[in-house]
Amino acid sequence: MSNFYALIMAGGSGTRLWPISRQNRPKQAIELIDNRTMFQHAVDRLETLLPPDRIMVVTAREYVEILAGQVPDVPRENFIVEPMARDTAAAIGLAAVHLRHRDPEAVMAVLTADHYIRDVDKFRRVLSAAAQVARQGHIVTLGIQPSFPSTGFGYIRQREQLDEVDGFEVCWVDSFVEKPDLDRATEFLTTGLYSWNSGMFIWQISRIMAEFARQMPELYAQLQMIAAALATSGGTEVVSDVWPQVRKETIDYGVMEGAEDVIVIPVDIGWTDIGDWAAIYQLHEPDGSGNVVVGAEHLSVGTNTSFIQGGKKLVATIGLENVIIIDTDDVILVCARDRAQDVKLIVEQLQSEGKIEFL
Amino acid sequence: MSNFYALIMAGGSGTRLWPISRQNRPKQAIELIDNRTMFQHAVDRLETLLPPDRIMVVTAREYVEILAGQVPDVPRENFIVEPMARDTAAAIGLAAVHLRHRDPEAVMAVLTADHYIRDVDKFRRVLSAAAQVARQGHIVTLGIQPSFPSTGFGYIRQREQLDEVDGFEVCWVDSFVEKPDLDRATEFLTTGLYSWNSGMFIWQISRIMAEFARQMPELYAQLQMIAAALATSGGTEVVSDVWPQVRKETIDYGVMEGAEDVIVIPVDIGWTDIGDWAAIYQLHEPDGSGNVVVGAEHLSVGTNTSFIQGGKKLVATIGLENVIIIDTDDVILVCARDRAQDVKLIVEQLQSEGKIEFL
Predict the structure, then answer these.
(1) Chain A contact for B315, CB < 8 A?
(2) Residue B14 CB partners (closer than 8 Å, separation 6+)
(3) Closest to B334 (Cβ–Cβ): which among A320, A350, A355?
(4) Which residue from A326, B14, B206, B220 has the fewest beta carbons nearer than 10 Å?
């Protein structure tokens, strides 16, 4: 499939993974799980599926150099820079006009750099199946089969099966559902009709542009201005002019919820959102006390189900349960594991107090 | 009172205050509370009561230099070195023969370097009163009026009052009681007859030597050998020969429990045993969240009743209660506050694993 392209969304800042994730080195640019960065994994996963020159990346200006340096096989011109963050609809739209300029027949897979996928082979196969479905004009989304009643993800409710492609069930989408409370999430799981919204989408470039035109006409007009400039000057200046006026909107709210004939392919690929330190703890095999220790010399007396990441220092812990300890060169974070989401509040405090050296 | 002397016991290693207290810099040699070390405070407290040349110190060979350097007014020859730790009876005995050699009429106050005393003025006054009582031939001990039913201290049960000296109640001791369980400790408090055994004793040198002769004849004989050598060669060599054979015994068990006409002066001087990090937490005024932060830059989200000592690093804490965090150049300790005693288990692990760089 020579006109199948991937777009890796790599613009996030990852404040919930502070203090490892920093302003000049966001989470997708770090070796969080092993000796490859999250972004390198996102590129690695596409190997055999499509060549590096068909991998596009959208990110922020301050991250371009570090990310490009990590994947030398991906051409530098495939990195699309957002002058400022305008959420997923605009980021995808910007990449889409670049891609349309390059190949109007393109089928585009929108992928992420902040998820871990255990079963990479299956991921490749389902992407390939999704591309076949997208080629028929559908908007396709990958639905993750829920492993627990998460209240942290949006859900996709499916209708009847439309087809089976390469062994994958292909279903009509009934609706997109925002993050539920625990009762509803539990109910969702019992029906078997819901999957997690992974934020991975596959569509023809012509189809998504038509959706922008229909559902987000203001953004579409702005994208068309950029498209016109792309054909002549390269577009950078026009993007700089237009972008500050672009409204922030998610692709889910701006396009997906209002789109017709949307397809979901529910799949189990060992997908994990690397959202916070608690998620990273879950990715590792704990020791006999339920502890996960990464890169630290650790001595324990009565410490259980905790996550410790070093660090040049010896970390000694006594009588702790469900605690996260992260030691970096300039910061020590000690956090209750069930409060891992609140790491972003520390980052907000640092911002409001102007302590930029720790951001 | 020109023949009143103080002996400061400064030989402990303070493993429960690791990782600040280290093998080459034990807790008495560190600024644990303010900018004076515990040992300096022990010397400072005697100011106006007796001159520096009447302050004796008994300690281990490896601590002599650091301690002597901290109190330049105390003559170097007043530091008595134990070749190895042989517990309090032998340490006091060794100091006693040195002191008898210098002044057979001496009255000796045995004091500690690992306690904090808030009311220094009252401490001086009660010591002075105790010296007057000791001069009558009694063994005197300072009893600390208990502020809570501690199970960590031995207790002294008093009989009827014998006298009042300078406003202090002077009572006969009924018995010394080992560390009780919580029920007994609670009962002790209701009677009003019990005080904590502070480990501070005041006696004539002739009296304590007589007690050694009567109750610990083996130690007494060993001390007499040292005394004989003191009169001629200075004694260092004889101490090196004799000390390995000395049996370990506490002064409480070896002498106090079997002594007659022992006096207790129960007193409230704001005394705290600086035994572990939980005790140091208690010494400070906590902030509105009950936290005590010493020398660290600290950011908190939902952290309560915790103790944080830095450190060059920013310490960020989220969702913690009753936690102790100590950051040093090579170690981070994170410890449940009610497990502060178990810090010594970490030190034992380090010893058994031969990780001497952290000791």
Answers:
(1) yes
(2) B21, B26, B27, B28, B114
(3) A320
(4) B206
